[in-house]
Design a protein that fits this description.
The structure is a homodimer of 407-residue chains.
Chain A lengths: L2 H8 L10 E2 L5 E2 L8 E2 H18 L3 H4 L5 H13 L6 E3 L3 H15 L5 E5 L4 H14 L5 E5 L1 H4 L7 E7 L11 H10 L3 E5 L11 H4 L3 E4 L14 E4 L1 H4 L38 H12 L6 H18 L7 E2 L11 E5 L3 H10 L2 E2 L1 E3 L3 E5 L7 H17 L15
Chain lengths: 407, 407
């Protein structure tokens, strides 16, 4: 380890959080932007939920352990990470399903407007959900228009109901300018929906201040809620009582235990809840979120910028790696991506050497840096191993084929 | 315990399965039709999933532990419980969200027909989801028509796209005649959707033989998959490639890892999958389902009928309790419901005495009998305690207020 890495780690105000996670000894895990590591508190919460709440207290737990309130209690733990005051975030379903709710809600709030504008390189499931809405409602009621990041704003016009975009691009890690794009949408009378899956928990966000209308995100990346953790929905308070969404489930009913045969939407953001969520999954995420109550997100962002910069600097002497993430720290999320024609084989070779990165077609090496559990020494060691592999071209040897799959 | 109960228990071919569950000692749990008890195998599977798969193997588990296949592998474990050949059941989302997929699919398969016919006393969330579809598509494209159980069939006509019904009614436990109603729907060219939440796992089903088109159900009642366990979708093979559903999530894409910006539905029933499921919840359900591989559902149904009959017989001398479940065992699911004007207070008093039943507005006492872990001796003891409470009117005393909530 260099003295520089040692100094950076010694002065890292977040260093103590590493101990809050169960990570395999010796492994350098640079894929927390795909699946966050296991918080010890989540492990304990799952045991408690299964053995005591489900196993012992059984059906009573809906009340005695407040399972019934979980969409709200977990949502309220997420809210500060988004810069959202209370009463605007609920935890429910998957990001995909939540996108469907909000895309349809936007069309309802902007009658007469049919355009949904997004970026052609938006995360695929975001585009798919918009396509599903468009095909379901018909071209006379909804249309999806996609453009490059540069041209997207030019496509927002008086026929645009919704602009939807992922805040941090999953391939290159570029951070979109939330203030500017939100303002551009609003200037045309359109609503703005941000997918925060690749940013929440890794940087401060300011949905309320920027007047964002809608947001979604997943619980399993920087929030560390576990594989396939429930997702969340943000609906700005000013819109909540003006709109519903078509997935009229019992948990979003005004009086779910009246067992009325007619749907009546709950007050506020609860109407964006649909069916019964996995309680075990909710409790894991809930426990994972608790650590954020003592964390300063400005420090997280500061470390994220320094850590990714450090990793890039450690690879400055690798001419074959083409950095595709923005070189300016303020413009990238907590990830670093490179082009390399042998990207897939290199990620395999790195995994064999104890460094878990990620690969995305066609030739992208992607490294996520979770400031809560990744050290500067690890970033340096990962860079050195990557450099060694590139220099020795060991990635051309057959390696154990594990293809990382899920973003 | 009576000698009759002792004999019934001694000759119960399913008695050994009780030991597969973690149940609190001394508690008589008659609410498995709302939340199934904890299988020991599910507890172990959750620990394994959290500690080894998530904690240790991290992102690699999507492949090495086949997380990516879970919707299918869990679905295939459910299929035999439904009388479904392979390739027709996937596990995903909640029952509510799955209803939305299938209601919209039915309208797509029957262009020109707009009626969705159901029973006015169908489970509320089923009706709500249909109402959501109707309100979003507009009355010219979809309408919901509800009628009493008796009159429902008369409402099915040449304008009916879909008939949807819960197989076992959640209040009175009446089993609807799946063969007759499915045939009535088909005779009018309509599709048939069954909600099996209150029947799967407690009786044999025969979706393929009856030519049922669609089915949904939850994983947390007789399947014992844990609170809010993922739900499932059955789509008859003959329909799978003719239809999509509007929730175009990445997991239902033909090539999810190509990250194409255009949705293309996966082959077969996979196109009914949407976003990333909770892996922990899926693995709990998966482990819970394993016990069914050695279980004869005909024996389960036989015990269910005998057990509920035994409970009813033990209460024959309680004139104040009005049985609302069918008296003929073949006509009821694995539950027994009574009217009593003090139903809520009685269920509370029973809980204080160690018997967990359930209450439903306005005055229904509901007792579920899970044949895998409920004994005849327990049914007898529960009946005796209920009779004692009724005779002594102890339910009129203040009791600890725990209101059971979730069906």
């Amino acid at each position: 380890m260099s003295s520089q890495a040692a100094t950076l780690d010694a002065t890292d105000p977040l260093a103590a959080y590493r101990d809050a996670f169960d990570l395999p000894p010796g492994l350098i895990y640079l894929d927390g932007n795909s699946l966050g590591a296991l918080p010890k508190a989540a492990k304990d919460a799952v045991s408690q939920t299964v053995e005591m709440e489900w196993g012992h207290d059984l059906i009573k737990s809906w009340n005695s352990h407040e399972w019934i309130k979980l969409p709200e209690t977990v949502g309220e733990k997420i809210a500060p990470l988004l810069g959202a005051a209370a009463g605007q975030v609920i935890c429910a379903d998957s990001t995909s399903v939540n996108l469907f709710k909000l895309i349809t809600a936007a069309l309802q709030l902007r009658p007469g407007r049919i355009k949904i504008v997004s970026q052609v390189d938006n995360f695929p499931t975001d585009l798919y959900m918009a396509q599903g809405v468009v095909e379901w409602l018909g071209a006379d009621r909804a249309q999806l228009v996609t453009a490059s990041a540069e041209e997207m704003i030019d496509n927002i016009d008086g026929d645009t109901a919704l602009v939807m975009l992922t805040h941090v691009n999953y391939r290159d890690g570029k951070v979109h300018d939330m203030a500017r794009i939100t303002q551009a949408a609003h200037e045309q009378g359109a609503l703005m929906l941000w997918d925060l899956s690749h940013s929440a928990g890794s940087m401060p966000l300011a949905l309320d201040v920027l007047g964002v209308d809608f947001a979604v995100g997943c619980g399993y990346k920087y929030l560390n809620g576990g594989p396939g953790a429930p997702a969340y929905v943000y609906v700005n308070r000013r819109l909540q009582d003006k709109v519903t969404q078509p997935l009229y489930g019992w948990m979003g009913h005004a009086e779910p235990f009246r067992f009325s045969s007619t749907y009546e939407p709950a007050e506020g953001v609860w109407r964006f809840v649909t069916g019964t969520p996995s309680v075990i999954a909710m409790q894991a995420l809930s426990a994972a979120l608790d650590m954020f109550s003592t964390i300063d997100l400005a420090q997280v962002r500061q470390k994220s910028e320094t850590l990714t910069t450090w990793f890039i600097d450690c690879l400055a002497d690798c001419p074959d790696l083409e950095l595709i993430s923005p070189i300016r720290p303020a413009e990238r999320g907590s990830q670093v991506s490179f082009h390399h024609p042998q990207g897939y084989a290199i990620v395999q070779a790195l995994a064999a050497a104890g460094v878990i990165g990620d690969y995305r077609d066609p030739d992208i090496l992607r490294f996520g840096f979770s400031p809560l559990y990744t050290s500067y020494a690890e970033a340096e060691r990962a860079a050195r191993l990557l450099r060694d592999i590139l220099n020795a071209q060991t990635y051309l040897e057959p390696v154990f084929q594990v293809r990382q799959t899920v973003t």
